[in-house]
Amino acid sequence: MGAMSPVDDAVPVDSLYREIDRDVWARLAAGERQPLTETEIVQLRGLGDRLDLAEVREVYLPLSRLLSLYAGATKGLGADTADFLGETDSTTPFVVAVAGSVAVGKSTIARLLRELMSRWPGTPRVEIVTTDGFLHPNAELERRGLMDRKGFPESYDRRALVQFLTEVKSGAPEARAPFYSHVRYDIVPDAYVTVRRPDVVIVEGLNVLTPPPSPNEVAVSDLFDFSVYVDADVRHIESWFVNRFLALRNGAFSNPNSFFNVFAGLSDDEAVRTALGYWNDINLPNLRENVEPTRHRATLVLRKAADHAVETVQLRKL
């Protein structure tokens, strides 16, 4: 038999997923009590995100219920395996990844899932770690000529992230991640985020689903129990990125200690041009080359509309 052509060898990736309309998805948590107040939701909402009581009830409450089922099943399997081996049960934290482009709402979703999952009886202790903490310090990025590629896979200390997650999944009493300051736009020396065997660790970041650089290395995603990819049309993400830049110019950028304080005095037109420059030169290429191609590696995909509302959910088949 002759070699198969690339077309013959192609895998229909979408066939690996169930596609669930929003109305159907919303019914999966029918009857569940809304655990968050409107004030709490406003506090969790990021710049430009659409998040209200209906969005939480119809999209994220069902997702948190599904995650609690997966976490419970994983814990049960761990206990059964320990029993089979005649060992003491040493179940480790359930690790959830939240991936997707800049400005797509990953941080808001991670914070929201932390609040929702902590309300389920099996997962009261939930921690968030962002991969920003595993960026190389600016001085090292400058040394390597990578400051203009901050956020690309090569700008991260991948081995440190793998080591951190290995400690989490091996049941270490505590694991420490470096702390990243968005005001300073850099790693803060001798500052850490420490997790001490919580029930769930949520890892949020751009490139968390990226394959390893070589087949002999562990992928970050090998250490996840469940992963969420937040998806949207590129045109919508560009608009969200620009609008967020404008909002930051009037807010966080005005802080004299902010790395981006230089942009605080830009006019609207100048700010839009600057934001589009960053988008077209850095964030869009990173999305196309590195982030978007990992979408099919996620357990679940949330597809957002132009107003940030989730339209459809894709769940990988077991």
Walkthrough of the structure:
The two termini are 32 Å apart. Helix 7 crosses helix 8 (268-291). The strands form two sheets. This protein has a seven-stranded mixed beta sheet. A two-stranded antiparallel sheet has the order 4-5. It is globular, with a radius of gyration of 20 Å. It has one domain (15-316): Rossmann fold (3-Layer(aba) Sandwich), CATH 3.40.50. It is built from eight helices and nine strands. The chain is α/β, with parallel strands linked by helices. The relative contact order is 0.16. A hairpin with a 5-residue loop joins strand 8 (300-304) and strand 9. It has helices spanning 22-26, 38-44, 53-85, 106-117, 138-144, 158-169, 234-250, 268-291, and strands spanning 17-21, 94-100, 126-130, 175-181, 186-195, 200-204, 226-232, 300-304, 310-316.
